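Dear colleagues,

For the upcoming journal club I promised to circulate an example of a predicted protein-ligand complex. I picked one with S-adenosylmethionine because it came up in last month's discussion. The inputs are reproduced below in full, followed by the predicted structure.
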Amino acid sequence: MSEIWNTEKLHAHYAQSLRVDDLLYDSKTEHQRLKVFTNGTFGRILTLDDVVQTTEGDNFIYHEMLTHVPLLAHGAAKRVLIIGGGDGGIAREVLKHESVEHVTMVEIDAGVVDFSKEYLPMLSQGAFEDPRLNLVINDGAVFMKENTETFDVIIVDSTDPIGPGEVLFTDTFYGHAARALSEHGIIVTQNGVPFMQGDELTNTMRAFQSLFADATCYLATIPTYAGGPMALGWGSHSSQSRNVNLETIERRFIAAGLNPDYYTPEVHKAAFALPGYVKKLMP
Ligand code: SAM
């Protein structure tokens, strides 16, 4: 068995190693080092600058929760914007909603899209070929600054706030995103694992509280993002979407004909229940 390990050193005092059973790709794109390898527990794994982005085995949790929670809370989303998301997993889940008419996906790195299509086709499952998807290769922060359209749901599926992803955690970016949301629109963001990256959540929540009438986070536990549940940021100009009751979510879920492996209407509602240590990170 291989003795090569991918060691992720995202945190100052904690590292995570995954055995590289078979290295399928290792190269530098214009923006970051991209690796695809197989691992007996998680299947195919995509890393950017050695940090795990997504795995064949557990990506369903992250992608379903970052997509179905805002889409079913909104209930009639037609226009969706994805920032980042180069592996196609979020696009895959968004396009399962027949109510969605148009998806704009803004990814900085064409290399991630190309290699994901070739080495991780199970992630996008044909999403890049869907005529409702408009793929834009650009920095999400630049796009947002110049954007004049409005969206019902904005999903920020970014890397961590280091390297090219850093600009997607700034007040300026969030301010432009807030302007682009429709009346009951929702923005959701990947906000790291609060036990390990508490500042990341605090900073985003501080910005969201100044921009949105409804600002909070919800949680999902994803095995490869170690250290407990991950926080997914939530912002909206109205609290209507978050306060939708369980019966309504159930009705919308059945009507959408989804068959997810993690998301359920009960999990949707429960995900907003925050433990004390997470609440204390809210400014
Ligand atoms: N869920 C993963 C995680 O947190 O580990 C991240 C998923 S990965 C699909 C994130 C994507 O964001 C990458 O494809 C990366 O190229 C893209 N990205 C990073 N910075 C960006 C930026 N400024 N604008 C648009 N896309 C960006």
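Two points we might discuss: Residues 59-279 form a domain with the Rossmann fold fold (CATH 3.40.50.150). DSSP finds ten helices and 13 strands in the chain.

See you all on Thursday,
B. R.
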